[in-house]
Structure formats: structure tokens, C-alpha cells
């Protein structure tokens, strides 16, 4: 296959849309890690739940936007309950326990979903306004992928505004820095943690919902997504939102180009990228020195 | 101080439990099904290797499937493509496991616990995908490594590894020696250093020990024994399943280790035995076996983190100290 400029630009756009989903995932993971100091090993499972929430809502009500909204709300609620009843009892114990717990959660929920929905992929029909592609001088991109890119951009702007300009956002940033101090000021920090967890997994749910018109929703896709999300976060530097965004962009491009040029290696390439970056810069691109 | 005292007793009672365990394994295949016991021994070695890192050094690896799988495929490919003997195959497993651990260690061992867990999980997944598609020609892809000639030992004397009982005692021999070596490592000054790191890393650094180096070698030993277990698994099955590299393998070994008790020497083996026995008994009936596994995982972490052996031991020790206190009071 000859690499023309048109093809390269097309591939970059596809990579951007792929990366957008990873950015949503990685931002959620980063918020949770920053606030709770917990790496959510069930992050991909919440992504999978988001896809199924969107699927069920859309098949019940037939409205795509309602489906997207519900993928956030339902997954956020599940996250709220999970944090309150399963993760909260583990604070102050071995820092590795929450990891193991969320891992167990992901194994159990995956199997439960398998029992309920079977192992055949469920795909959401594309809404009519997003049918077809945009064409320009031999560069083409499906409208829906453009929508994903802009949706992610909107979410990022919203997140930025929320974290920087609102009171709650300020409390979240302060609790990320020094939760004890915030507690001393009379703020109910455990509730902020629960909220942060729900927000983080809600983003994962949105990623699952928005991606389920492209990738069929399968119970087993969760853990793979978790691991890919880890790669994104390790590349960018754990704990940094900017790093999560950069990592997502890089991984999107890597997958897009490697699956074009050497499709056998597309699954392996992201891990090789991670290892290369770790070789050059062990704390990831934007990682804080000292923290890891 | 009290904690340290308990740990010392742990190690002393350890030597007795090891001999009891080895003796139990010697007679077990005549009482319980031989294939099940073989599997328990292989995964027992895997869990002991894994626990060297988790329970004794305090580092969580979420990618031990990589060592197990690389050991399994390494032994298998050496036997299949180069026609080497089983002994050489196992040696290949050992070398590959240690090398892989050294590479991962060089890249990531300095990292905080969570970060190391994430990187190790990603690396293991990379090997899974490597075996699945790009190296399909050699690994057999999804079907696993197949078409292996019947395995047997020629040195020091002929052993037919196709029939269960000779195979069992071959595995018993290798696992038994490995258990003794692991126990020796943990009772050496190096082993004590590992436990010091687990208990208080900052203080160990302050005492002038090279903590990074100790962690690195702990990982190398752990990878080595896990890969050996993988090689034995290949010999036991007679083929190399792709499942050995799957992330669920890393999760299962973690679950079995916690189930038995990660802060004890023999706990992981007990956990493996309990888990595999239950799986053998019930997974036929229960279609949703993984659901059970996941829930068991959460219950263990939430209410029962010391595991079977850990809980029994602390009950036993509590009773003993209570009895002592009564004695002293009188």
C-alpha cells in the first residue's frame, strides 16, 4: 500500500478519534488516582458497563442522547455504590488492597454480565445525523468519529472549567494535594472521595457509551480496556491530567498507523511504545519526579 | 517488637511444615486424584515464587502470567523445535524467566507499588498478544503450542512422562527441591532483608541497605521459579496453552496466594490446594465459576486478608501467648 498524504491525514484523524476515547478513560483513572490514591483496576469494567447501559437505554427508548446520558449516570451510580461499600472499608489499610479488590470486582462483574447478556457483541445503531462521512480532497472521515473528537474536547473543557473555576473543583484539587488539611478545614473529604470516584468511572462509562456504535459491547472487553488505559497513563505519567491527554493522543496514533501498516502487530505496538518511553523517561512524559 | 517475635516463630515452625507438606505430597497421589495433585504442586510452586515478591518483599506484580507463560512456551518451543530433552527444556524456562524478570526489574522495580503493578500487567498482556498473533507461526496462536512428541526422561534413568504416577514423582522431585531452595533463600540474610523492606522500607534504606538491588533480585528469583512452574506445566499437559499468558492467570495466582495467606511460607500452597480442589469439584456444576472467583476475591480482601494459614496461625499464637501470660501470672 502506498502512503499518500491523503492517507496519512485520514489515518491521523482516525487516530485522533481513537485517542479521544482513551483520553476520556485515562482522565477518569487519573482523577480517581489523584484523589483516592487508588488505581482502579476495574476501570475498563466500568467502560464495559457504560456500553451496556447505553445499549439497554437505546433499545428501550430509542434515543441516542438519552443513551449517552444514561451511560454516565448509571455507571456513576454504580461507582458511587462500589466506592461506598467496597473501597471505603479499605482506606488506611495496605495500599495494595484496593487494587486487588477492584480486580476481583472486575472479574465478578464481567462474568455476571456474561450470564445476563451472553457473549455476542451488542452494537448500537448509528444515529441518522451521524451517518455517512465527511470527504475533502480524498481525505475522508466518518461523521461519527468527528463527533467523538468534539465530544471529548467538550468534556475536557468542562472538566477544566469544573476543576479550576468552581468551588467543588477547588476542593477536589485541594484534597488531591493534601486531604488531611482539607479535612481540618471542616470539609467532608470522604464524601468528596466518593464523588471523585463516581466522576472518574462516569467518564469511563461515557467512553464506553460513545464507543459502542463502533465497537460491539462485549462483557470481556473490559479488562483489555483497563490494561490499555494503564499503558496510556504510564506513558503520560501517572497522576497528571495533561499526561493522560498526551498519552491518549500518542496511543491513538500508534494504533491507527500500526494497524494500517502491520495489522498483526497492532495489539503489541502500544506496549512496545510504553516500554520505549519507560526506557527514555522512567516516570512517563509528564510524571512528577518524586511522586512515583 | 511483638510483630517481629511472631515472624521469627513463623520461620521456625516453617521448617516443620515444609517436611510435613513434602511428606503429604509423597503419599497424596495414592489417596486423591493424581492429575489434581500434580496440578496443585505445579501451581503451588508458582504461588511460592509469586509470594516471594508479594508476601515476603511486599511488591505486587499483576503480570506473573508472563513468567509462567514464557516458562511454559520456552520449554515447549525448545522441546518442539530443537528436540532437546525435558531437563534442558526446564533449564530454558529458568533462564528465560530470570532474564524477563531482570528486564522488567531494570525498567520498573524502583517504582511505587501501584505503578509496578500496572507496568507488570501491561508487559504480561504484551506477551499474550505476541503469542496470539505476530508469532503465530511458532506459538500456534489461539490453539496453543501443539504437536509435541511424547515426553520422557532418559537421564538419569528412563521415566515415561505420559503415565500419571511417574510424571507425578518427576514433578514432585523438581518442586520439592525448589521449595527447599526458596525456604533457604528466605532464611538467608538476603531473605531477612526482604522482610525488612516489607515491614519498613524507609528504615531499611536508612540502615544502609541497597533496597533497589534486593527488590531486583527478589523479582528475579520470583520470575525464575514462576517460569520453572510454567515449564513443569508444559511437561504435565504435553502442550502449551495460550491461557497461561492470559491476565486471568496473574489474577488467579494472586487470589490463591491471598486465600492461603501471603504472610506465611506454606500458605500459598494451601491456597492453591483449596482453590484447585474447589474448582475441580464445583466448576462443572457452576457455570458462573469466574463470578464465584471474583466474589471470593472481594470477600477475602474485605474480611479475611490474612488467608487460611494466616488466620489459623494468629489464632494459635494468640492462644499460646494467652496461655503464657496465665502461666507468668501464676
Mean pLDDT over the full residue set of chain A: 89
Instruction: Tell me, rounded to a whole number, the average pLDDT of chain B.
Output: 88
Radius of gyration of chain B, taken over Cα atoms and rounded to an integer in Å: 20 Å
The strands making up the biggest β-sheet of chain B line up spatially as 1-2
Strand fraction of chain B equals under 5%
CATH architecture of chain B: Orthogonal Bundle
Tally of distinct domains of chain B: 1
- Low-confidence parts of chain B lasting 5 or more residues at pLDDT below 50? 1-6
**Global geometry of chain B:** globular
Low-confidence stretches of chain A: none
Quaternary state of this entry equals heterodimer
Largest sheet of chain B: 2 strands, antiparallel
Give a quick rundown of the structure:
The complex is a heterodimer of chains A (about 290) and B (about 325). Chain A is mostly helical.
Can you put this structure into words, describing what you see?
- The complex is a heterodimer of chains A (292) and B (330).
- With 292 residues, chain A is mostly helical.
- Chain A has helices spanning 5-36, 43-61, 64-87, 97-117, 143-165, 167-177, 179-184, 189-211, 221-236, 241-261, 266-280; strands at 133-136, 139-142.
- Chain A has a domain at 24-218.
- Chain A contains eleven helices and two strands.
- A two-stranded antiparallel ribbon of chain A has the order 1-2.
- In chain A, α1 packs antiparallel against α10.
- The longest helix of chain A has 32 residues, at 5-36.
- The radius of gyration of chain B is 20 Å and the shape is globular.
- A two-stranded antiparallel ribbon of chain B has the order 1-2.
- Chain B is built from 14 helices and two strands.
- Chain B has one domain: ABC transporter involved in vitamin B12 uptake, BtuC (Orthogonal Bundle), CATH 1.10.3470.
- In chain B, β1 (152-153) and β2 (159-160) form a beta hairpin.
- With 330 residues, chain B is mainly alpha-helical.
- Mean pLDDT of chain B is 88; it is low at 1-6.
- The longest helix of chain B is centred in the C-terminal third of the chain and has 27 residues, at 211-237.
- At the A-B interface, α4, α9 and α11 of A face α5, α11 and α13 of B.
